[in-house]
Amino acid sequence: MRLADRLLSRLGYERRDASDPSWAALAPGIGYTASLSARAAENLATVLACTNAIASAIGSIPALVYRRDAEGNRTEVASHPVARLCRVGANPGMSWPDTIEHWIASALLTGNGLLAIERSGNGQLSGLRWLPWGMVTVAELSSGRLAYDYADGRGNVRRYLESEVLHLRDRTDDGKIGRSRLSRAAETVQAAHAANTAASSFLANGARPSGLIEVPGTMKPEQRQSLREQIQGTHEGAANAGRTMVLDGGMTWKANQISPEDAELLETRQFAVVELCRLFQVPPPIIQDYSHNTFTNSAQAGLWFATFCLAPWARKIEAEFARSVLPTGYELELDLSGFLRGDPETRWNAHKIAIETGVLDADEVRQIEGWNPRKEEPAGVRSPAPANQGEQSHV
């Protein structure tokens, strides 16, 4: 044991060996398999697209802070420090959407996302700073709580305690450190990576002509060179596409068709897209895979995405803020209703029902849409009543 480790153990600290399988995710550079890191996994277009879709969507969701009274009623608190960070930025270098996007992407790829809580001199929350998980070493203290040692890459190391960070975890095996879903389905990811590697090698090293010219007998070198130059000068390039080829001397043209092996490789790569989408709970149309798309499932993809993919992550974020940052009686809400803004008919039908049933009034609907309330009308002046109300008044 090194001298530093012995001193730390006397102070009640414990350093875990990164080679321990249950703590393997703590070591920088280790993703989910020995041969493919989380960073390398983003070379798979589906992994990158799913990660970006989830992270950017949650980063764009309006975040609101509420105070709940003893009777359970909620009041929005726009002056709360968390609400201020949502408006002006989580820290001087990153906006709120950027910070949340990095936080979520880290949790998706490594199973863990970490935000350092920054406070002013009076202890008030002043900022949130994203810490790359690959630059963090986790130690378990004698109390059972975790300590996070962050190396900034310039030789400086700072220790954060659990109360000083927001630790977003994917599902864990030990209740402390999250485990990436990529690691739980490592064979699936490896298969997709192998298919991509095979396709890249084929394109880089393979020779696949579009067709073959069969010649009876044996051609002399000068005849072969003359034929090659004739074909290149007459038929190669976009400008010569579709030109008729004239062959003489008994020569015949045969188009080169895709082999069953190559067709199987294409199907494997297509199936890998669906498999990786399953890992992240992302409907394929969200990442522009329309191979099995219909009008009906395309229209429902956004709703499915918000309900089964974004909502669980939003609830995790709300719970982590309630645990680490917000005092008792306050709560953070990520408003997923913003996803209905892409469907005006559904949105306004919902507003209409809310007004007719007395759930909302017109000014509350205007507020939801981001508009100011109607100005109070001068005495003696009345706005024209809606057509249906005007008709009812004469009955």
Q: Describe the oligomeric state of these chains in a short phrase.
A: single chain
State the low-pLDDT regions, or none: 1-35, 381-385, 389-395
SSE-based structural type: alpha+beta
**Distance between the amino and carboxyl termini:** 92 Å
Main beta sheet strand tally, sense and closure: 4 strands, antiparallel
Provide the gyration radius in Å.
30 Å
Domain module tally: 2
Strands of the biggest beta sheet: in what spatial order?
1-6-7-8
Mean pLDDT: 80
Form type: elongated
Strand content of the residues, in percent? 15-25%
Helix content: 40-55%
Instruction: Give the total of beta strands.
Output: 12
Order of helices and strands: HEHHEEHHEEEEEEHHEHEHHEHHH
Count of helix runs:
13
Protein name: HK97 family phage portal protein
Organism: Sphingobium wenxiniae (strain DSM 21828 / CGMCC 1.7748 / JZ-1)
InterPro entries: Phage/GTA_portal, Portal_HK97
Pfam family, one: Phage_portal
Architecture overview:
- With 395 residues, the protein is of the alpha+beta class.
- The chain folds into two domains: 1-207 and 259-299 and 311-335, no CATH class; 209-255.
- The protein is 43% helix and 16% strand.
- The chain is built from 13 helices and twelve strands.
- The longest helix is centred in the C-terminal third of the chain and has 30 residues, at 295-324.
- The protein is elongated.
